[in-house]
Amino acid sequence: MPGGRLTQQERQQIALGLADSLPYAEIARRLERPTSTVTREVMRNGGPTAYRADLAHRATERRAHRRRPASSRGAEPVPQPHGRDAEAVREYEELLTTVLMQSGLPKMMARVMACLYTTDAGSLTASELAQRLQVSPPSISKAIAFLEGLELVRRERDERRRERYIVDNDLWYQSMIRSARDNDRFVEVARQGVGILGSGTPAAARLESAARFLDFVSESLIRAAEQAREVLYTKAETTSGDTAEPRSDR
After folding, report:
1. Pairing, β 154-157 against β 163-166
2. What is the C-alpha separation between 189 and 4, in angstroms, rounded?
3. Based on the number of CB atoms within 10 Å of its own CB, is 217 exposed (0-12), middle (13-18) or buried (19 or more)?
4. Nearest 10 degrees: CA dihedral of 66, 86, 95, 57?
5. Sign of the CA dihedral 165, 166, 167, 171?
6. Which residues contact 52 (CB under 8 A, 6 or more apart)?
7. Res 66: pLDDT
8. Picking from 66-70, 81-85, 87-91, 144-148, which range would have the lowest pLDDT averaged per residue?
9. 196 burial via Cβ count (<10 Å: 0-12, 13-18, 19+)
């Protein structure tokens, strides 16, 4: 299996594979590369519908050029716990950032989310985030405000009265519920439009169809979120509490 960076020819093969609607695993097999390498390459450079081999190659060269000065200064990678490969962790954070951007998050917000999710504690202070991401504190503040508005992070004060920004299991539940509420608002407005545009007209029928679809999806989403929260999180916490009890009796 070849190592090192992808060549321009390999990028052209990736572009051809995407044009033929081949899955990433098949493209990787033909290149004799890990599937993660192909996935990261595509997602970092516009996604499957916008990937261009020549643009991707030039973008990689620019990124490599920007990193050289830092290397010449002898910058040390962030030490990793549990024997993790620092370079592999950095590349994974880039991949996760790209996937979050593809889902609609702006770049800085996606970088903050990726940083929090790849931290064992699941929480960092503003100064820790700024240091890890090498950005200014105002950039972190703006990103956190945006993510809090989407209920994707929350904040707490630690024992030293510092604000810590946290991602945990319950945030995904809250995000799903918020999404369902957004759907409900659209359903309500769409059905108002049916009355205004005239029941039975093509425009009204279109709105009614959208309202029925989203109403069904919202109901299913809320039900699934409640069930997932109960099965995956509540029971896990109960089990953890049960195992901890005998130790406290000793």
Report:
1. antiparallel
2. 54
3. middle
4. 40
5. negative
6. 15, 45, 46
7. 55
8. 66-70
9. exposed
